[in-house]
Amino acid sequence: MAHEQYKSCIDACNQCAEVCDYCEAACLKEREVAKLARCIQLDIDCAELCRLAVSYMSRESDYAAEVCELCAMLCEACARECASHPMRHCQDCAASCRRCAEECRRVGSDRTVPQSAQRAAAAH
Q1: Domain of 29, in residue numbers
Q2: What CATH number is associated with residue 92?
Q3: Chain segment 46-69, per-residue pLDDT in tens
Q4: The whole model's pTM is what?
């Protein structure tokens, strides 16, 4: 498969999305849900962006690296928030988000100028 270069990042993003979904659901069952509002929102955002990054990498989009860079930033924010809560599901989520951020940063750093951007620049 052509997207094999992204396999470890795709795996990390898929796992992160699943763990974020679980953390969100578990937070909603906690006694003081209002205190977890930021955690829940970041879990939702992170899971969705991880799935989007998987989609871009799977089809080898010219913009996969840029999406992965954004995903790394969001994963880091989610990891910081989750790490601030003592619940096991939050701690597990923080660890998964950190792994995903690392993989996404690797893909982002491997970036070259997208072909479509090169064509657009050449046309002007």
Answers
A1: 2-123
A2: 1.20.1270.360
A3: 999 999 999 999 999 999 999 999
A4: 0.86
